Structures are given as structure tokens and as C-alpha cells.
Amino acid sequence: MNQLMKLTTTTTLAAVVLVGAVGFTAGRISSSTPSEESSAESRSPSAGRPSRLAAEASSRQDATTTRKTRRSERSETSATTAEARRENLTAIIQGENPLDRSRALLAFIDQLGPNDFEEAVATFRSLGMTENRFGEYSMLLAAWAQADPLSALAYAKANTGNRFATNTILSTWATNDPDAAIRWAEANFDGDGANPHMAAIIRSLAGNDPSRATALLTSMPRSEERGEALDAMLPHLLRQGNEATRSWVEAINDDALRNGAMLRVAEQLAATDPAGTASWLLANPSEATQRRMDDVYSVWARNDEAGALRSLATLPAGENRANALRGVVSSVAMRDPAAAVAMMDRFSGDVTDRVVQNFVWHSFGNDPQVAVDQISRIADDRDREQMYRRTMDAWLERDSAAATAWMQTNQLPPSVQEHLNRRLNRQQSQ
């Protein structure tokens, strides 16, 4: 083997030498000017310059052509890739299985660079499915916010007509860099009233930094935006427990904000602690107490009717007891209208028009006759006639024979009787 390699190498070298010799001889033979001047010129340093210049120019031209070709190829590849991304995203979003969409979209997002998100979001929005695919839309926006929040916010501000996109981006950004998100929110609002961007930031901070979220919330003036921010905070507060939630509400210095918070949390607290929630409302008399006592006692009666009645009996006569009675009656009327009537008879001094109205609304489905029989308890003439008209119309639609029979043995307000007679006449003429 070594001898063979040596032979081959030797043969190759010999061939190279031979070719060189032949080339040299051919050059000598092909020379057309054998004079000394020509020989001297051919041997001078400048003799090959034109050839070298031409070679260099050709080389530069080849390099330029290569670069142009590569740029063209990259452009074509980029265009192809962009088109493929658009087709892929369209296919994902138009899928019917939500789990498949989510998995595919996450894989798609993982392949995007910071500069690819604008095209992806624009493609998504062009499909006209944002209302049906809010979850996927949020995923795209949140991913863009993590990659380049300023570009994402600039796009949302220029291209979207509501605050959903901006809020989603801000909320995501605030999770990672709340100071930067707050600076942007303050710099991009110059109007009067509450800053509409703060609710999204407060939503993000509520879980990780509730103290800061509370400070931002209480600094906002009374407004719809402050209500949105409060709604965003409450789920995080409720997870801390009933006592912590009540303490947080009580610590609010702004009366309107504190009342709004009580209104929002009372019914939810009642689901696990109706007795404690009722006591809390009574200890903090406010609009929330007036508006939520019935809800709290309704929940209480649904889970523990005897306990709710015992508590009701201990309340002093007045608005709070009437509101509590309304809640108990509403709950009981849905399953046992006769028992609810017995409660109204027992606490007759606390039966207000609203108590009767709630009874009728909740008992009519089970026993329309018992429901209609109690309408006469409504003191206000207008409200009483309106309730008769609505319930009798519904009863005639549901069971015309039973409703007509009741009308023949009971006296109704004249205006209601005329209305029902006209209705019956139309039915008979058809």
C-alpha cells in the first residue's frame, strides 16, 4: 500500500511538471514578436497588469452578482416564510377544537421573533373572529407584550377601537415591569378624570402586590374606570379569605369606594358565611346594607331556612328586617309558595310592596294562582295594576282556562279588566 501511494504521488507530480513544461513551450512557440524589445516587454513587471485588472474587475462583478442573488433568495425565502406563517395561523384559528387551537397556537407563538408579532396579530384580526376567539387573541397579545410591549401598545393604539388589546398588553407588561407600565399609562393619558389604563395595571398587581394595587385604586377618582379596577382586584382579595376581605373593605377611606366594594363582595361572602356577612352589613350601615340584605338572607335561607328565620326574628322592625324578609320569601317561594305566604303572614308588618313583588316573580312558575292571589297586598296602585297586567297576560298565555276561571271569581282593577277583556276578544275572533 505504501509503495502504491508513493507511486501515485510521484506520477501526479510528474504529470504536473509535464503540463507546466508543455505550457511553457507552447507559449514560446505562439509568440509573434521574437524581437528583443518584445522579449524585454514580456519580461517587464507591467506586462501582465491589464490581465490582472480584468480578472479583478470580473471577480468584483461576480461577487456583486452573488450578493444580489443571495439577497434575492433571502427576500424570496422571507416572503415564502411570511406567507406560510399567515396560512398556518389562519388554519389554526379557524379550527373548531379549542384544545387543538390552543396547543397549535402556543407552538406557533414559540416560533415567532419579536418582529413577527405585528403581522401575526394583523392576520388574526383580518379573519374577523376576535369576538369568538378572545382566548387566542389574548395569547397573541400577551406574547407580543413579553417580546416588545412598546411596539405592541403602539399597534393597539393605532389599530384597535376599544381598550381590550391595550389592557391585555399593559396587564402582561405590568407583571414583569410595573414601573415601566405605569409610566407608559401616565404618559399616554392627558384627559380629565380617571386614567383608563390603570385598571389593567391594577389587575396585574392585585395578585402579587395588593398594597400597591390598592394605592393605585384609591388614587383614582370615582368613575367607571375605578369600578373596573375594583372588579379586577376583588377575586384576588376573596382568595385571601372572608375576614381579610372584610378588613380590606373597611380600611378604605373613600366612602363611595368602600360602599362599592361592600356591594360587590357581600353576596359572595354570604355563600360561605351568611351569618357573618349579615352581621357585617348591619355593623356598617350604608347603601350596601340596604341593597344586599335580601341577597344575603336569600342565600342563607336556601342553605339553612331555619337559621335564616331565627336571625330574621331577632332583627328590629324596620328597613333591614323588611329587606331580610324579602330575601327569605324569595328563596322559599321558588320551592314552596304556600310556605312563603305563611312567612309573609307571620311578619305582616314587614311586608312591603317589594316583598310582595319578589314573591310573585319567584312563585308564579310553580303556582300562578297563589302568586296572583297575593298581588292585592301591593299598596301602590300603579305597581299593583302593572303586576296584575303582567301576570295575567302570562297566565292566559300559559293556561287560558285556569286564568279565565280565576278572573270570573276575583275582582281586578278596572283598567286591568278592560285590558284583559280586549285580549280575550281578540283571541276569540281569531
Distance between the termini: 115 Å
Number of strands: 0
Helix content: over 70%
Helices and strands, in order, run as HHHHHHHHHHHHHHHHHHHHHHHH
Beta-strand content bin: under 5%
- Could you describe the largest sheet, including whether it forms a barrel? none
* Unreliable stretches covering 5 or more consecutive residues: 1-50, 68-79
| Envelope shape | extended
Q: Provide the gyration radius in Å.
A: 42 Å
Number of helices: 24
Structural class: mainly alpha
Overall mean pLDDT stands at: 84
Which keywords apply here?
single chain, 430 residues, mainly alpha, 24 helices
Would you kindly provide a written description of the structure presented here, covering whatever features stand out?
With 430 residues, the protein is an all-alpha fold. Helices cover 78% and strands 0% of the residues. It has 24 helices and no strands. It has helices at residues 2-29, 36-43, 49-93, 98-110, 117-126, 134-147, 149-159, 164-176, 178-187, 198-208, 210-218, 224-238, 242-250, 255-270, 274-283, 287-303, 305-314, 319-333, 337-346, 353-363, 368-373, 381-398, 400-409, 414-429. Helix 11 packs antiparallel against helix 12 (224-238). The radius of gyration is 42 Å and the shape is extended. The relative contact order is 0.03.
